[in-house]
Amino acid sequence: MLQRICLLVAFKVHPKTSSYYWEYRGGCYSGGEIGVYEKAVPGTDYKFDSIPIEVREDESLYVAAGNVGSHARNFVTPIFYFFGHTFLILAVLSILAFVGLFAKSWRQS
Question: Which of 45, 58, 60, 78 is exposed most, by the fewest CB atoms within 10 A?
Answer without folding.
Answer: 45
